[in-house]
Design goal:
The protein is of the alpha+beta class. The protein has a single domain, classed as Glutaredoxin. The protein starts with about 25 loop residues before the first strand and ends with a strand. About 40% of the residues are buried.
Length: about 270
């Protein structure tokens, strides 16, 4: 299911993305909010001395014989320090004899949006999108490494500091300001709820008889705010978002129209 694909230059379009309805969110200047933790408190935090090296989004399918190698490679990257990885199962191979038990139509739609912006004109599995700015074959470590290097260089002057933590019943997301001399675009702050690992026994299709493990499977990917170049803080009700025993949280700042990812953090760091 690997199809021809090409290296593409980063392209960015402008449009405003709406904040998803139904979430109780308060966003305001970080300078105006006291986020000091009580003495002796130890909130779980994503704060790191350095930003993530890369964000890798893997579009995969249980019905694709080429995908298990990519799924295993993503796990290798997740085991490396400072890589944020997301598994986004798609459903467009379900007709081949096995319906992907983790797939969601929104994942295929996100992949199509990338294909349109990056100019590939097609989607396939296993496809990896690196830093929202380049597409590569998801089972090729050499292609992924080249994409990490190229997009890291291209986006170096656009990176936005980002970390978040949970304390009590709240999830607190804190963003920094735009780098000096940067021209910030109003960008979306995404919250991804991911299941850390899922074992699936495949009973049909190209992977029939295999039991495969998927990592950081995206269960929800929801816009929770907008970043406009200034520091901001967002508070969310933790209980409404995640089940801590099996799930983790990842936050992304992404430029408009499925553009480059300019900030990322994961709660487990």
């Amino acid at each position: 299911m690997q199809q021809a694909h090409a290296w593409n230059a980063i392209a960015v379009l402008s449009r405003t993305l709406a904040v998803a309805a139904g979430l109780a969110i308060v966003a305001f200047s970080a300078a105006a909010q006291d986020n000091t933790m009580p003495s002796g408190a130890s909130p779980q935090s994503s704060l790191r001395p350095d930003p993530p090296r890369a964000v890798i989004e893997l579009f995969t399918s249980q019905g694709c014989a080429d995908c298990p190698a990519a799924d295993a490679l993503l796990k290798d990257y997740l085991d490396k320090e400072n890589i944020v990885g997301l598994t986004l199962p798609v459903d467009y191979w379900d007709y081949l004899g096995w319906s992907d038990t983790l797939a969601a139509p929104r994942n295929a739609e996100r992949q199509r949006q990338y294909a349109q912006r990056l100019g590939t004109g097609t989607v396939y599995t296993p496809q990896a999108i690196v830093n929202g700015a380049a597409e590569v074959l998801g089972s090729s470590p050499s292609e992924i490494e080249r994409a990490i290097s190229a997009t890291g260089t291209a986006l170096a002057s656009s990176r936005v500091p980002l970390h978040f933590w949970h304390y009590g019943n709240a999830i607190i997301i804190e963003t920094g300001s735009a780098p000096r001399d940067a021209e910030p675009k109003e960008s979306t702050i995404w919250l991804a709820v991911v299941q850390k690992s899922v074992n699936v026994t495949i009973k049909g299709g190209e992977n029939k008889g295999k039991t495969l493990t998927y990592y950081n499977v995206v269960r929800e990917l929801t816009p929770v705010g907008l970043w406009n170049g200034r520091p901001a803080t967002i508070r969310l009700a933790r209980a409404a978002i995640m089940r801590p025993e099996s799930e983790d949280l990842i936050v992304l700042i992404q430029e408009p129209d499925s553009g480059p990812i300019i900030g990322a953090a994961r709660l487990g760091d």
